[in-house]
Amino acid sequence: MTGSLRQNMAWIHGWLGLLAGWLLFAMFLTGTASYFRPEITRWMQPELPAAGVTTAQAATSAVAHLQRVGADDVQWYIYLPDARTAITRVFEQPNPKAPPRPRGELQLDPRTGDPVAARETRGGEHFYRFHFQLQLPYPWGRWLAGLCALFMLGAIVSGVITHKRIFADFFTLRWNKGQRSWLDAHNVSAVLALPYHAVITYTGLITLVVMYMPWPIAANYAKPIDFAQAAYGLPADAEASGRRAPLVPVGPLVAAAERGWGAPATRLVVRHPNDRAATVTVARHAGASINARGASVTYAGATGRVIARSPDPGPAIATMGVMLGLHIAQFAGPALRWTLFLLGATGAAMVGTGLLLWTTARRRPGAAPFFGLRLVERLNIAVVAGLPVGMAAFFLSNRLIPAGLAGRADLEVQAMFWTWGGLALVQLARPPRRAWAEGFALGGLAFAAMPLVNLLTTTRGLPRSLAAADWTFAGFDLAMLAIALLLGVAAARAGRAPRLPVSRRSKVLVDA
Amino acid sequence: MLETALLAAIAWLLLAAASFRFRREAGVPNPRQVRALRLAAAALLALALFRCGTPLTGERWIRALGGASIGAVLVVLALSADAMFVLRPLRQLLTRPAPALLRRLRRPVRQPRSY
Amino acid sequence: MFIDRQQPQPAPRTARPPWRGTVMAVRCVTALVGGYAFAAVVVTLIARLLPGDRAEATGWGLTLSFLFYAAIGLWCFHERRLVRVAATVWGVAVAGGGLLWLLGVRA
């Protein structure tokens, strides 16, 4: 590569950012939304009142339900409710010999164990899963997301190397200067929140590192499961013995585990229920530590005796747990969570301004745009203006699709992708400047409509939730209004024709 | 959290005033004051770090860095909108000559002040 | 992207040698695929050879993996001579891989 280190890093920074930019923008938006995954799910099931049961009760009721519908399952994963989540979420791993039934996530009322009497929806899970699977089948989505994250890491490192006057230009943000403004905006959003971006990117890769880089495990353990056992104290996968034994009540097991930790439980995994070799693993809620891998204790399912405990992690395993925690921020209280949300939005701004800078830097006044420029510009509009509208469509469809309709959860997801895809195509009929302005304006309208639609279709509209200090619902509606305002401002600015640049005809030194 | 962000924002404002770009708007006349501003900013950032106490080990750093970033973004946005207005309090503080300030302090209270 | 006055103008398309595309493709494949192999081999050797607890050594290898990958990937686009890039990346990957195969799984 010809050129100095700075020039080469600038070149690769541009390519890494361009190739991964659109997917990264989508990952940033959906990942930032995922900071409020349980709150989004709650907003999307307005029929549910706030829970008020203990984790032990929730575990008992969930197991009772599962004994009725899936007593012969291989495994039950039971996610217990907590301060932010109002429902018990259950995943069953069915017995291969059982007749097939429709499977998916079960949402149970923690009090009764029955399926929730609320509209069926993916809720915040949809954004969370899209964030690292990109709606592609396993394992391709995760690989693609990992590749994009790797490109992001390369872009961060090369961006820092190439940024010449990183301290002198620290406070520089010039408006209405075309390319210079986009560069300033890209620098501001990238540099001022650089610790956040670097940490999020690297820890994001580490969350799935066992899938991306299994080789260190393979070199040290003949069976990879032994690593999970050594690191996290998971019991060896015992085969079902084939002899039946009733499962002991799990409520007392959960309560005993919580007493031992002095902290609530978050999850139960029951293996081979109703078998002599059944195990019940209770995991501690990780909200009280940065390390996201909480301790766990495993009981024998037939007798209730403790058979395994997670070991105190050594520094390397603890580091991995802390990295996971830094990414998913399970420990964050409301103030810090909103801060992280804003920083995530800054990350989306960093990617978006970078993509826009790419086109602005290559536009020559008076010359027709080359094909690559037109392609990138159209993709920019499709993603930066289109995805927010798609996300709004997901929320709006939740309120507009009848609550009792079967398969409505899938319809909501389809609403998001059809809207996004439809906009991406329709914008081709408009000149780029109009497409930007109209796309943002549509997004502003969609988000502004949200609290109104909520008010008209449910009993938990903004005035009532403000009066009742229901901050989940009020916060959600207010956030929608704030996003609507932001998109409205963007639409107004995008619609204005640019001032004619007072520039030299020769190439301008564009310095970072 | 809010306190952390605000303290950091003031610190960034002082650093901006000391930076070459905004020295004129801030009315910073000489290098000694530049150094003093930077020291004050560092002190404020350290204060922000120490004051965001939480029970969790390590969460302090996350709060401090997060608040500092948010504060920095807000300061840069404000400065880009209207630097003269944002830096006015600091400018008034820095360019008022010291003897006049002392004279004003020594003046007895009952004398009517004219603005 | 960042057009610098000091950098010479890129040659017009007709004057560029025809193998330039291939050279760039080889560099990209070396960075992406070779870089992965390089990083995998380096951290696996670290995990395999670090004394002490097996799980800990594995953990350090996993944690450092992407640091190596990003660094070597960026270096592939900085070093001018493609021969040096390819030799380093593929050489370490193959040699390290061979060494790991000889070492076998940790007992």
Provide a descriptive summary of the structure in words.
The complex is a heterotrimer of chains A (512), B (115) and C (107). By secondary structure, chain A is an alpha+beta fold. Among the domains of chain A are: 54-120 and 234-310, no CATH class; 363-504, no CATH class. Chain A has 18 helices and 7 strands. Chain A has a 7-stranded antiparallel β-sheet with strand order 3-2-1-4-5-6-7. In chain A, a hairpin with a 5-residue loop joins strand 6 and strand 7. Chain B is mostly helical and 115 residues long. Chain B contains 6 helices and no strands. In chain B, helix 1 packs across helix 4. Chain B is globular. The mean pLDDT of chain B is 83. With 107 residues, chain C is mainly α. Chain C has a domain at 31-103. Chain C is built from 3 helices and no strands. Chain C has helices at residues 20-49, 54-76, 82-103. In chain C, helix 1 packs parallel to helix 3 (82-103). Chain C is elongated. Chain C starts with 19 loop residues before the first helix and ends with a helix.
Topology at a glance:
The complex is a heterotrimer of chains A (512), B (115) and C (107).
Chain A: H1 5-34, H2 37-43, H3 55-69, E1 75-79, E2 88-93, E3 106-108, H4 124-133, H5 140-162, H6 179-191, H7 194-207, H8 209-212, H9 215-220, H10 225-232, H11 250-261, E4 265-271, E5 279-284, E6 296-300, E7 306-309, H12 315-328, H13 334-362, H14 371-400, H15 408-426, H16 432-457, H17 462-467, H18 471-495
Chain B: H1 2-18, H2 23-26, H3 31-51, H4 59-86, H5 88-95, H6 98-106
Helix pairs in contact in B: 1-3, 1-4, 3-4
Chain C: H1 20-49, H2 54-76, H3 82-103
Helix pairs in contact in C: 1-2, 1-3
What attributes does this structure have?
heterotrimer, B: 115 residues, mainly alpha, 6 helices, globular, C: 107 residues, 3 helices, 70% helix, disordered N terminus
In short:
The complex is a heterotrimer of chains A (512), B (115) and C (107). In chain A, 57% of the residues lie in helices and 7% in strands.
| Poorly predicted residue ranges of chain C | 3-7
Series of H and E elements of chain A: HHHEEEHHHHHHHHEEEEHHHHHHH
The structural class of chain C is mainly alpha
Count of DSSP strands of chain C: 0
In DSSP terms (H or I, runs of 4 or more residues), the helix count of chain C works out at 3
The percent range for helix content of chain C is over 70%
Largest sheet of chain A: 7 strands, antiparallel
Indicate the multimeric state: heterotrimer
Low-pLDDT regions of chain A: none
Count of distinct strands of chain A: 7
Helix content of chain A: 55-70%
pLDDT averaged residue by residue of chain A: 91
